[in-house]
């Protein structure tokens, strides 16, 4: 099977950010399939047009399109449309049996639909976030015409897809509620990459490098520093924890449009580089060292139900892979799993003083902390095992291709 895989923000483990597409694609390659990724190169480069690399047997076609979470929404939409236009022709030019497109952004559906129609091959659509509901709720899309166009594109994407993959059960329910047949929608959540996180690729460890950390308790928050994640909440949490225990260290690792705002807020509240530290985004291989060093990992989301009810953050699955507890300030899919398996807790999303006491109650609960790795491994090796999830995806793609061939 030849898969044309569209993902605007594809990352390898050498890059910062989620690697779901890389992990799925390399497993498809290992199973004997040919995978061509169509994506963007988001950093400065001398390349002016498409260029090709081989990533663990995956053919990756990169188009230079500058993008970051620091860009305003108008600039982001411009980047979305530029890639959608260029990737439509690139996808249509490649040899393939199936189009597999993963959102966000929702505009990824445009080149997928075009290439599927032009090549007369089926399309499978993966939904990572409920667009356009999320950007509309955040106020990122306000223009009435853009709202209508976005909702129309969502419906067209679902209608044109031979199958839809959702990352959480709630997403599946929302898609079915729009009139899509239940048989057409499957759930394949994010997964744990035990082979990556079980290894420490370099030394020294962070605790040996940073004197301000040493043997102190470490509360780690890694990922995009954007409006969706409400990292300013973490500053207030650090301020409250400092009143009870000034030795606990909070570390933010990432980048995004709210970086400077969070830094300024930390300075104003007297926690910056005292018990609250900020580091730039790291490649996954380097981030592993910090995850292993953490006492607890934080997953934060702005207090909007549309954002948190189906949250499937990479940091949750990374925490499982390294056997670390997770603290969420929302009650959604991943936090409910954490509660069910007793590997995490939900802290108060509105009252940092209450959340601080909740966090401190587990930071020094040695018996509970010692039991988390074993309970996490049950999930990491079972329900969220990436190998099993990739096999599930492979089965869906093969089934769609087989049914298409029977019809034609």
TrEMBL record:
Any keyword Transmembrane helix? yes
Where are the membrane-spanning stretches?
287-308
Q: Which Pfam families match?
A: Glyco_trans_4_4, Glycos_transf_1
Keyword Methyltransferase included in the entry's annotation: no
This entry's Gene Ontology molecular function terms read: glycosyltransferase activity
- Top-level lineage group: Bacteria
Q: Which InterPro entries match?
A: Glyco_trans_1, Glyco_trans_4-like_N
Glycosyltransferase subfamily 4-like N-terminal domain residues are: 18-191
Alphabetic keyword roster? Membrane, Transmembrane, Transmembrane helix
Do you know which Gene3D superfamilies this protein is assigned to?
Answer: Glycogen Phosphorylase B (3.40.50.2000)
The Glycosyl transferase family domain is annotated at 212-366
- Please give the name of this protein: Glycosyltransferase WbuB
Q: Which organism is it from?
A: Nodularia spumigena CENA596
Lineage of source species:
Bacteria, Bacillati, Cyanobacteriota, Cyanophyceae, Nostocales
């Amino acid at each position: 099977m030849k898969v044309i895989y569209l993902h605007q923000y594809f990352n390898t483990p050498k890059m910062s950010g989620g690697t779901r597409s890389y992990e799925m694609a390399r497993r498809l390659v290992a199973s004997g399939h040919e995978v061509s990724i169509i994506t963007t190169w988001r950093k400065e480069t001398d390349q002016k047009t498409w260029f090709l690399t081989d990533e663990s047997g995956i053919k990756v076609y990169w188009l230079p399109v500058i993008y970051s979470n620091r860009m305003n929404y108008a600039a982001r939409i411009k980047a979305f449309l530029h890639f959608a236009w260029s990737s439509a022709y690139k996808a249509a030019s490649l040899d393939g049996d199936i189009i597999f497109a993963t959102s966000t952004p929702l505009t990824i559906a445009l080149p997928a639909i075009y290439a599927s129609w032009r090549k007369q091959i089926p399309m499978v659509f993966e939904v990572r976030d409920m667009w356009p509901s999320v950007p509309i709720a955040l106020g990122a899309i306000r223009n009435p015409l853009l709202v209508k166009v976005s909702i129309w594109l969502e419906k067209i994407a679902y209608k044109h897809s031979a199958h839809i993959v959702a990352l959480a059960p709630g997403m599946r329910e929302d898609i079915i509620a729009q009139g899509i047949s239940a048989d057409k929608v499957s759930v394949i959540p994010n997964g744990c990459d035990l082979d990556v996180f079980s290894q420490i690729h370099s030394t020294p460890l962070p605790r040996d490098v940073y004197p301000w950390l040493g043997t102190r308790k470490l509360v780690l928050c890694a990922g995009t520093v954007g409006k969706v994640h409400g990292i300013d909440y973490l500053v207030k949490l650090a301020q409250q924890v400092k009143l009870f225990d000034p030795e606990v260290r909070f570390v933010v690792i990432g980048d995004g449009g709210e970086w400077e705002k969070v830094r300024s807020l930390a300075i104003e509240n007297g926690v910056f580089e005292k018990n609250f530290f900020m580091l730039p985004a790291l490649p996954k291989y380097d981030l592993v060292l910090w995850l292993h060093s953490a006492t607890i990992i934080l997953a934060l989301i702005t207090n909007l139900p549309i954002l948190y009810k189906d949250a499937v953050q990479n940091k949750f699955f990374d925490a499982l892979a390294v056997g670390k507890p997770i603290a969420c300030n929302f009650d959604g899919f991943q936090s409910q799993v954490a509660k069910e398996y007793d590997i995490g807790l939900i802290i108060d999303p509105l009252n940092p003083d209450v959340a601080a006491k909740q966090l401190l109650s587990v930071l020094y609960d040695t018996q509970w902390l010692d039991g988390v790795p074993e309970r996490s491994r049950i999930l990491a090796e079972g329900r969220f095992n990436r190998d099993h999830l990739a096999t599930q995806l492979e089965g869906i793609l093969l089934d769609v291709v087989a049914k298409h061939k029977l019809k034609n």
